[in-house]
Amino acid sequence: MSGRTHARACPERTCVGCRERAAKIELLRTVVIEDTCVPDPRGTLPGRGAYVHPVPACVDLAVRRRAFPRALRVPGPLDVKALRQYVEQTEGCRQRLAEQAAP
């Protein structure tokens, strides 16, 4: 072996809710559109992004800590209804898939 093949590094990001580092693919990117914090699951929307675990606990913690406006560098509070709705939907789908796979 020549040693030329290297395992590709997996990019890491920090969750703005729990402040834990995780692989980028495990986190949900969020962006601001007109004073609303919206999910960007494909990671293609323009603008500054903040990453959060796609679980309600981390979203609630980020809101309580006022982390979204700080990370996204916008003044004032942001509306996170769309983000919460997306996270709750994906969490529900994840739980249903786990229940179907268990039996």
Automatic annotation (TrEMBL):
**Any idea where the YlxR domain is?**
13-85
Signal peptide positions on this chain: none
Family matches, as CDD domains: YlxR
Q: Name one Pfam family in it.
A: YlxR
Protein name, as recorded? YlxR family protein
Organism, by scientific name, is: Streptomyces glomeratus
